Amino acid sequence: MGKPLFQQAREAIGKQYARDHAQSTTKATMGAVRQFCAFLTTSYGLAKIETLKKHMVDAYVKSRAGEVGASALERDATAIRMIADAINKANIVPHSNAQLGIVRAAADRYKPVRQNQEKAAAIKAGLYARADATGAARDKALVGANELQAQFGLRAKESIMSRAVERDGRLVLEVGGAKGGRPRTLEPENTNQRVALELLRTTSREIGNVNGKLIPPDMSAKQMYDYQRNTIRSLGATKAADAHMHANRHKYAQDCRKAGNSDKEIALKLGHGREQVVPHYVA
Known about the structure:
Layout: H1 5-13, H2 16-20, H3 23-44, H4 54-65, H5 70-86, H6 106-109, H7 117-134, H8 137-152, H9 156-161, E1 163-167, E2 170-175, E3 184-186, H10 191-207, H11 221-234, H12 245-258, H13 263-270, H14 279-282
Antiparallel strand pairs: 1-2, 2-3
């Protein structure tokens, strides 16, 4: 008996996809791959992924169109294209989602978060109060991480894995833990950013991280990230309140736009490889 279709598809796609994308993105895409493979097995008895045909793709998209929204269909299309590319049959899947009948209005696609600044200020105050009360290295680290998110628009993971380093006599931010492993260096452009960098440097030393990161020596990066997420949420950082950790990133991008930055400049600062993502933050 041959390998299950999903296993064949996953092996064809390879491990590089997981290395190049965030864990949450990989999980969602692989879920779409699994569902597509289940459809192929049930509807066509497909035994080998290499024998995938165009009419099977069309039938799947049509069947899903009545069940899910455009966002889920776009994820399905991405998964199918990955499989088609991997088996050298890219031509059986249209290049554009519109050709597959998938159309999403801009108002639905682009939904920048308008940060609740009052709530964000309360969360910041809560972090400082917690660090003062406990004196714990992990709580001191959260104060520095929150400042990095606010001043440089870092992702949560980046905020605990980045370092302040000297380049040509200037302190700059070397971003670590970037999505897809894309490194970047950010130079401070204002006083608040310089203060955040100095806080990063002094706090990392205070908590004993020899690599200059905001991770206590007795914690792994995952443990610190989990603690960060749970603690921030306990202080009210939720999507419903427009004050979750990613809201800092949206606010930063919107401030960059107000300062006259182009889509390309904003994308580079955010650590995205494509300018097309910028409207998600500033539209």
